[in-house]
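Hey, can you fold this one?
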Amino acid sequence: MGKRWEGVFRLIGIGWYIAVCILLGTLGGRWLGQKLDGKSYEVLFTLLGLFSGLIVAFLGVYRMLRLIAQNNHDNDKGTN
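Sure. Predicted structure:
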């Protein structure tokens, strides 16, 4: 497989990472809110889980893209 497909699969992996982080955060917050036995807790912890999932996804994607950019930069230096 060529470098083109490698980039495509990396982007697909990043998309899945974002989706899983947000989904797990939201479902985890909802589960915790239900365990505390209150409708207001369920909404509160669902939102907290959603925001924590978004933060984890953002930080993870930032690190992944920084690593990809660094690898591309190192490869460009090697071709000179």
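The chain has a mean pLDDT of 88. Let me know if you want another pass with a different chain boundary.
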